[in-house]
Amino acid sequence: MYNFLMTCILIVAVLIIIAVMMQPAKTNDALSALSGGADDLFAKQKPRGFEAFMQKVTVVLSVLFFGLAMALVYLSSH
Question: Which residues form a coiled coil (predicted)?
Answer without folding.
Answer: none
